[in-house]
Amino acid sequence: MPHIILIAAILPCLIAAACTNLDSLKTARPIAPIQSYETLLVGSLEADYIGDENCLKSCHKHDKIAQDFKHSVHGDQISGETGLPLVNCESCHGPGSLAVEHAAETGKCAFETLIPLEELPAQAQSMLCLKCHSAASTPILHNWMASTHADNDVSCFDCHQLHKGPQQKVDRHEQEQTCFGCHQETRMQFAQFSHHPLHQKVVCSDCHNTHGGTQKNSLLGSTTRETCTRCHMEYQGPFVYEHADITEDCINCHQAHGSPNEPLLQVSQPFLCLQCHAGHLGGEGGLDNSSTKQAFYNRCTDCHSAIHGTDIPSAHGRGSFIAR
Fold first, then answer.
1. For residue range 301-314, what is the model confidence (pLDDT) as tens digits?
2. What b/e readout covers 191-227, taking b as 16+ CB neighbours within 10 angstroms?
3. pLDDT tens for each residue of 170-192
């Protein structure tokens, strides 16, 4: 009885402590209030906008960068009313009057007066781009803030290189290396014996929305099957005789990126099929179970060639038997 009383006294304390710990785990811990970053991204309130030409004539260190930017998608946008670029250096770095105020005397710019972009966390860096692109690119970016990339501290700068040249987004030939920098498991899958022709024909963005989406794994299609049949249209259907699992999801049988089993199978044949279907025996009498039998160990698709579905009835008179 004393032990029961002791436990009854201690138990509420333990529950209270556990609840306190859970509450602390659930408590949001933002890096800083959004308003602080919004104020910071405006730039120094004591500085004035002076334009690219005034900035560059005081410091020629960035002439090459400025030239590349001028020929880019951003630099090519000129206002029809004023003839001035809609996006320039100060659009991202903030007003530059203080940076070049003493450049002629010291021979260098006071970069510390500009917005410290490299020191900002990923979320704040992306906010800088979203100042314009939340309206200009809404169909692409409306899922960004809830995307896997945003949640894992990936910023726009990690993929888009505004100073690199006219091409300000990752080129198709460079995309795989950019993605593999984080997705090491996917890199290993593409190194398997059977894999999609990455780089030769397809790239990551052909299947995934890198800016986030409403579908699992940020797929471009509304389902996995819809995404796959954008290329594999011969399996799209609908068919008169369908394989139920295949109409549901291609991933039931195939690995999306790569597999040691041809063609991209999760498990080699016939063991993949035997996970759902009971194996049958065959011998000289074919499917006649009264004949001498031996185990059926070759590939199921040697007979069931229309495994994804067909409109042609089986030669054996069994319409649902997807064989040709």
1. 887 888 888 888 77
2. eeeebbebeeeebbeebbbbbbbebeebbeeeebbeb
3. 777 788 888 888 898 888 888 88
